[in-house]
Amino acid sequence: MSNLLSALLSRIQSNTATVGIIGLGYVGLPLARAFSNAGFRVLGFDIDTHKVEKLNAGKSFIKQIPDAVVAGMRASGFEATDRFERLNEPDAILICVPTPLTEAREPDLTYVVNSANAIACRLRAGQLVILESTTYPSTTRNVMLPVLERTGLVAGTDFFVAFSPEREDPGNPTHSVTHVPKVVGGLDDASGDAACALYSAIVPKVVRVSTPEVAEACKILENTYRAINIALVNEMKVLYDRMGIDVWEVIDAAKTKPFGFQAFYPGPGLGGHCIPLDPFYLSWIARHHGMTTRFIELAGEVNTAMPAYVITKVTDALNDAGKAVRGSKIAILGMAYKKDIDDPRESPSFELLDLLLKKGASVSYNDPHIPTLPRMRHWPHLEPMTSAALSPEYLSEQDCVLIATDHTAYDYQFIVKNSRLVIDTRNATKPVTAGREKIVRA
Q1: Quick one: which of 182, 120, 138, 189 has its CA closest to 160?
Q2: Domains of the chain, each with CATH number or no CATH
Q3: pLDDT at 273
Q4: Does the pLDDT at position 172 exceed 80?
Q5: Phi first, then psi: what are they for 160, rounded to 5°?
Q6: Residues facing residue 379 across a β-bridge
Q7: How far is CA 132 from CA 22, 40, 110, 113, in A?
Q8: Which of 96, 196, 274, 400 is an active site residue?
Q9: Are the beta carbons of 195 and 160 closer than 8 angstroms?
Q10: For this structure, is 196 an active site residue?
Q11: What Cα–Cα distance (Å) separates residue 98 from each residue in 197, 260, 267, 345, 394?
Q12: What would the pLDDT profile of 317-365 be if each residue is shown by its tens digit?
């Protein structure tokens, strides 16, 4: 064992290592909390100065992490900074930045490359660099590593490199970072040893794999599996709707089988930071290897068509009520991509909003977790909006109420009672007994 590795392992095992985290969003901040709670000094890096100032004041910007938690982290030594020249301070640097798609649905690794460049400017011997951002297999070795090694330092000898995919599930307290096994792929044995030692301090189990490529492929497989199965039930929903069969009842019946079936549920489209994007990363790298992933791309087509399907259901329902979409008042309930969170990333609600506005509807929204709509990268033309109060008067004024996210905070009996027409994309109104004639499931 080299002296550098031995010294790093000693600092990790004694909790005297400083952990640096680049990107303090829905992945990075929970990770910072985990290491802070484990007794490590944590230095968080972010380009958003407002976010840095808020965290240093002991305030959170993520619903699942209360202000008291951030205040406790600060008391334990956590610090946020936008000064990337301090990247020489941490012993381990974890990259948790977005990996979006371009307009052509190709990987956009700008944030990863920028992070690697920032690290390279301050890289010192003995540091551990781990990429957590979801990406295609070979990114760590072929994209990040060359940037780091341009310093003249050699990975595996002078510093250490690994990939460990984030498995954060926003809003799920039982599946937080400290409750989920961590897959780790080191560039070499020494890098794997260092990364496994680091994560062993915060997770119940470390699953070591042979290479970063295996770890990268693992995350892509997990999310592609979900995307394909969601596409299957979305397609079933459209078919069974035409046949007059309740797809939700079908799923409830099928999941009584104790083997060979896992329930997935349809919706108005895919949302979140992983499932809508990751399969396209795999399709892109497959083309570079002379292969077309037809199955995956077909699933993507099905899922991306769901918002348009929902708008068709809205149009038909309004038509049956003697109204056109143009000029109708439509309220969207839920702008987060799934229930009980404040995360709007890739939420299909934004496409629903955009499509309805383009058809001439007067659209408003309510979301108890998102009081003001943030500016979204794919929807920069949408005007700023604030959440309307969900009063009987507001609901009764609407020609249509579209349930896009099934937040637990909603009283669905109240919503149906006070609405003229309800389009339910999540089966949220299943328990409602009175006024079912107003409900159209989409």
Answers
A1: 189
A2: 3-214 (3.40.50.720), 303-441 (3.40.50.720)
A3: 66
A4: no
A5: -130, 145
A6: 376
A7: 10, 19, 15, 13
A8: 274
A9: yes
A10: no
A11: 25, 35, 24, 11, 37
A12: 999 999 999 999 999 999 999 999 999 988 999 999 999 999 999 999 9
